[in-house]
Write a structure and sequence with these properties.
By secondary structure, the protein is mostly beta strands. The protein has a single domain, classed as SH3 type barrels. Helix content is 9%, strand content 55%. Strands 1, 2, 3, 4, 5 and 6 form a 6-stranded antiparallel β-sheet that branches. The protein is globular and about 40 Å long.
Length: 75
């Protein structure tokens, strides 16, 4: 019988990999997932901010509050 993965397990497997984070305001942040907590607050590094698919700026390390996130996906 296959064990079901929990959501935080999926995030844990994505640690140190590039992920796409979509926010409620339709901005997207793509960067390396460094850490997260039980509220899905995340810290990304080497981040690109995208609006409407266009890179608008490059950032270093960012903290994103979990209550603003709609989707987290591996790149």
């Amino acid at each position: 019988m296959m064990e079901q993965a929990r959501p935080l397990d999926a995030l844990n497997r994505s640690r140190d990999k590039r992920v796409l984070v979509e926010l409620k305001n339709n901005k997207q942040y793509i960067g390396k997932l460094k850490s997260f907590d039980i509220h899905i607050n995340v810290v990304l590094e080497d981040v690109e901010e995208r609006v409407s698919g266009e890179v608008t700026r490059k950032l270093g390390v960012v903290f994103i509050r979990g209550d603003t996130i709609t989707v987290i996906s591996t790149e």
